[in-house]
Write a structure and sequence with these properties.
By secondary structure, this protein is α/β, with parallel strands linked by helices. Helices cover 38% and strands 14% of the residues. The strands form 3 sheets. The protein has a 7-stranded mixed β-sheet. The protein has a two-stranded antiparallel ribbon with strand order 1-2.
Length: 471
């Protein structure tokens, strides 16, 4: 009786492990048969000229089918199954080696249950879900069409990303007022290179609060995963949020510290962002959180450099014609604030590079545009009266990237619109290259000033007018 009782845990666990191996083998057979059936259904085992032509060089058949992503997904499932099998075999070998210890050990049912859930069922469930998510291309047409697959669908595992990038067909009418049958949600092409980070970003509970992960979102955007997918979770705000100051106060007053979520920054209040603090956490736009200094910009001759133009002098070039514009740079919205006092509406681009630039612009009663260098400006052609750039587009930038950016600015500037290049600087030996970049559009020169920045660097400020180009 005593021997039978001591043998029970060891024999019972070994019997369970044996059954698990049998179940696992049956599962592998079922998955294999299922996969073969899906390939058969797709026509891979039927003589189909369209499919055959693809494998022998006709590239239009699988034009949109991501074979590499499908291969990666299958390989991932196989690795999971192989790892599970190795883990079970290792456990059985250890049990054989430690028979004497197992005879004296009483493993409880709770421990059995925990082992099965964590070490067996979870990997099996993960592999099962991954297999079910694999989408093979569908043959469209009457047996002679092309195989089509939704772009990137097999690239990601996280279900919320897959739901987002799957096209949404119209519910009632075939063609909507956009003139399309489906709506494609967009993500940046570099998202496939940052798959791990994007899947972390999209891993949340629908309808609950989002994680405080704005810095992860910005990392994705700067890395080229831009635009980011939308999320179905609730954005967090400061727990002690206060109503903003009225507009007659907010333009030239630092906002309330309680209106910013300071997680992800080195500082925990606006006072800490002073240029006097070497640990403030940002390097661009030094001093732009000090309103007394900001008040002097573009309105007072606080600098002896000829490259520092005043707003009144630039607006005098086109009196009454500058109404809306874009400030493309790094700052706290001071340029937009000064222009607002002159009844000109300016949108300020901003990234939170070590400090809450977007928040302070909005809390001052101005409009921040959360945008990176990677993306096309979200404005229609020939709509802006003014584009002003300072502190952002400098001699570090690649010439080809700068070319694309300048052409995009040219697109949104209206005929007669002004491009204000403010304190652009570069190495002297690169000046001719950058000057060509600005002058290639044949804009009219209203102002063009060079000034030394250091022994090897030089400043350039200019105000250029876009020609009509009536064609």
């Amino acid at each position: 009786m005593k021997m039978r009782r001591s043998c029970f845990p060891r024999c019972g666990f070994a019997r369970i492990m044996g059954w698990l191996r049998i179940v696992l083998g049956i599962l592998v057979i079922i998955v294999s048969i299922s996969s073969l059936f899906r390939f058969y259904s797709a026509g891979f085992f039927v003589h189909n000229e369209d499919i055959c032509r693809h494998f022998y060089g006709i590239k239009d058949v699988y034009e949109r089918f991501d074979v590499r992503a499908l291969n990666d997904r299958v390989a991932e499932v196989l690795r999971t199954m192989e790892s599970l099998q190795e883990k079970l075999e290792t456990t059985l070998q250890q049990m054989e080696k430690n028979k004497d210890v197992l005879d004296q050990t009483n493993m409880t049912r709770l421990e059995h249950k925990k082992y099965l859930e964590v070490e067996v069922l979870r990997p099996l469930y993960s592999a099962h879900i991954a297999l079910r998510q694999i989408r093979l291309p569908k043959i469209e047409g009457n047996g002679n069409g092309t195989l089509k697959e939704e772009p990137l669908i097999n690239t990601f595992i996280t279900e919320e990303i897959r739901k987002y990038i799957t096209p949404k067909e119209n519910r009632i009418v075939k063609v909507n007022f956009y003139g399309t049958e489906k709506i494609y949600n967009t993500i940046g092409h570099a998202c496939v290179l940052m798959k791990k980070e994007l899947q972390e970003y999209m891993d949340y509970d629908i309808g609950s609060y989002c994680k405080d992960d704005w810095n992860l979102a910005q990392k994705l955007m700067v890395g080229g995963c831009d635009p980011l997918p939308r999320r179905r979770c609730l954005t967090r705000a400061s727990k002690v949020y206060q109503k903003p100051y009225p507009i007659n106060e907010s333009l030239w007053k630092l906002p309330d510290d309680r209106n910013v979520r300071w997680g992800g920054y080195k500082c925990r209040n606006f006072g800490c962002l002073s240029s006097k603090n070497p640990k403030r956490g940002y390097t661009k736009c030094t001093g732009c959180f000090e309103m007394e200094k900001e008040k002097l910009k573009w309105v007072a001759n606080s600098s002896s450099l000829a490259v520092d133009f005043l707003i009144r002098d630039v607006l005098a070039i086109k009196p009454g014609q500058v109404r809306i514009g874009l400030d493309y740079g790094v700052g706290t919205g001071t340029f937009a604030a000064r222009m607002r006092e002159l009844n000109v509406t300016i949108i300020s681009t901003a990234l939170n590079l070590g400090a809450p630039f977007n928040e302070i612009i909005a809390l001052r009663g101005l409009i921040p545009l959360y945008a990176t260098l990677n993306q096309r400006l979200p404005f229609f052609d020939n709509t802006m009266d003014l584009i002003h750039t300072t502190g952002f587009l400098d001699g570090w930038i690649d010439l080809l990237l700068m070319d694309f950016i300048l052409y995009d600015w040219d697109r949104v500037l209206r005929p007669g619109g002004l491009l204000w290049i403010d304190r652009f600087f570069c190495n002297k030996k690169d000046l001719d290259d950058y000057m060509y970049m600005f002058l290639q559009f044949r804009y009219k020169k209203h102002k063009w000033v060079l000034a030394p920045k250091s022994k090897d660097e030089v400043y350039l400020s200019a105000v250029l007018e876009k020609p009509p180009r009536a064609i």
